[in-house]
Amino acid sequence: MKHTPFSRRSFIKTAAVGTASLSFPTIIPASAFGANDRVRVAVIGINGRGKDHISGFSKLPNVEVAALCDVDNVVLQERAADFEKKNNKKVKTFQDLRKVYEDKDIDAVSIATPNHWHALAAIWACQAGKDVYVEKPGCHNIYEGRKLVEAANKYNRIVQHGVQLRSSVAIQEAIKHLREGLIGNVYMARALIYKWRPDIGNQPTSPVPAGLDWDLWQGPAQARAFSKNYVHYNWHWFWDYGNGDIGNQGIHETDLALWGLDVGLPEEITSAGGKFLWNDCKETPETLTSTYIYPKQKKVIEVEVRPWMTNKEDGVEVGNLFYGDKGYMVINGYNDYKTYLGKERTPGPARKEGGDHYQNFIDAVRAHDKKLLNGPVETAHLSASLAHLGNIAYRLDRKLKFDPTTEKFVGDKEANAMLTRKYRAPFIVPDKV
């Protein structure tokens, strides 16, 4: 099945035209709505990033965190007690996300589960008529990303991807500079993911802890015995559940690289790395260098993952560098950029200022207009797919050719088999959403 490749340039133009014709302001004051316009949000997955989701939505005017959901009932009850103490009100609790989707009082869901649940949880939410904020990566494999885009469009839902730097005022300004040629012809993006990742050891299998629904936690993945190796954070380093650091922290950087270069998926991918530090049970590489070539556009993306002691690059441990023929740009983290121009590297425009990605989502929900989204569903597919392509090239240990139009590898059955996974009923990402 062929798909029309997503063009960032065309999307930006469409969004600009659509926004200009809206009767709603971009930032909608709470006073413009009555009590019936309160947005009721359920947060699904509340052990890690979900805590920030609870905090972020709780701060917004006329937004109610109406429900909390987690497969670990111990975590669920702790978070609910903490929420009720801080907010002096009760909150609904669910252990099974399917019960959330049956609740007609819930307008939107915010998904912060492990990666292998992101796409299916978001697709089910779209089918249930809920708008969706989904953490990065928006999908565990490339097939899921395409299905998520299709579901959002079919059910006309607002789906925001959790790449919060897209709501940063500074980064939006930086992208504008790139488009307007401040550093000239921008031919390369270098994404840096230098995170402190220690030895995680190797825990044996053990009984499932009280309160944890281990079957539901595994969801779309094939069943295996419980181990503390996976729950609650180190699942990131196992292929069944996570995508390594390129598919963890790295999604912010792959997304920014695509945005800054104004490109979609690449045609050539190489990737190399491995485990050089720890003799632990991680399956994903500690160190990974991936290169993505765009021969028609004459552009290249480099993604560098390092886990331990390393130098910074122009002050950056996590961020992106963009190179043009008239200068280069340094983006440090989520809301800080600097530019250096000419052969002498003369300091140019710079800015440090953030934004509110949760507010941007709520604005789009209230207007029911996806053109308002800073991190639309397409970013969930594309930024994650870049990471998945790098992982596939690493696992197969060879250069890969990819067709961005069909979203298939060229003449490579083994690589194409890795575009999806074997699902476990009833947790199946449907071909027809």
From TrEMBL:
Residues in the signal sequence: none
InterPro entries the UniProt entry points to: Gfo/Idh/MocA-like_OxRdtase_N, Gfo/Idh/MocA_oxidrdct_glycsds, Gfo/Idh/MocA_OxRdtase_bact_C, NAD(P)-bd_dom_sf, TAT_signal, TAT_signal_bac_arc
Pfam families according to UniProt: GFO_IDH_MocA, GFO_IDH_MocA_C2
Domain of life: Bacteria
The Gfo/Idh/MocA-like oxidoreductase bacterial type C-terminal domain, residue ranges: 202-255, 356-427
GO molecular function term, any single one: nucleotide binding
Domain Gfo/Idh/MocA-like oxidoreductase N-terminal: 39-162
Protein name: Putative dehydrogenase
Organism this protein belongs to: Runella defluvii
